[in-house]
Amino acid sequence: MSFEYVGGDLAVDFLNTGDWTARGLENDLLSDYRRLLAWATGAAALSTDTASQLEHVAREHPAAAQSALAAAHRLRATIRTVFEAVVEGRAPDLADLNAALSQALPHRRLESAPEAHWVWVDADRDLESPLWPVVLAAATLLTSPDASRLRTCAKPDCGWMFVDRSRNGFRRWCQMSTCGNEEKTRRRAARSASQNPNGSVARSSR
Questions:
Q1: Which of 14, 44, 32, 40 is nearest to 69 (CA)?
Q2: pLDDT tens-digit profile of 143-183?
């Protein structure tokens, strides 16, 4: 399955690599380390050159790659718990996110050529480097006004999140073309069934 980048934020798109249902996480798109690299490249969290170098490291060190994938799954669950609390108006427990930040931020450096810019040191050698921009994005979102715009898709058993930057602030679906249309179709069918329990077609009074 292909990745969708519709959350409006890197950390939110990271959460949306699986469906957060009442039964738990389903349809996990981060099934192996190469999939993690594919997501990060598509999200512009990694360059294609860096991803290629990490793929080589992963082939040389499969156990370390599996450990990095497990770290990605833990980080995703951590960010989900934090963002869920924010959406529900509760104070989030930031201990695990702060721990992830303490591992990522030491790799952040300024370089001066040709102009001053941020880089991630050792990003092409550390198999967990695809997670560093995600951690930083999560912290940045939490400390910005957009934190109040975090939403969860209204379709049951989707669980995808998004930053609602619509003009009126009434966005309800992660994607109108999928969850929005499916939920509207389901509701129309439910209304039709309740109005016509015997399967008869209602006739207009006009």
A1: 32
A2: 999 999 999 999 888 899 999 998 888 888 888 767 866 66
Residue 5 within any structural domain of the chain: no
Q: Are 37 and 51 in contact (CB under 8 A)?
A: yes
Q: How far is CA 85 from CA 28, 40, 81, 94, 147, in A?
A: 22, 25, 6, 11, 11
Number of domains in the chain: 1
Query: Residue 11's CB: how many other CB atoms inside 10 A?
Result: 28
128 in any annotated domain: yes
Rounded-to-integer distance, Cα 160 and Cα 60, Å: 34
> 137 lies in a domain?
yes
68 vs 205, higher pLDDT: 68
The alpha carbons of the chain give a radius of gyration, in whole angstroms, of 21
Confirm whether pTM is higher than 0.90: no
How far apart (Å, rounded) are the C-alpha atoms in residues 47 and 123?
A: 10
Is 144 among the domain residues? yes
User: If we measure between CA atoms, which residue out of 50, 32, 57 comes closest to residue 133?
Assistant: 50
Domain extent for 82: 10-150
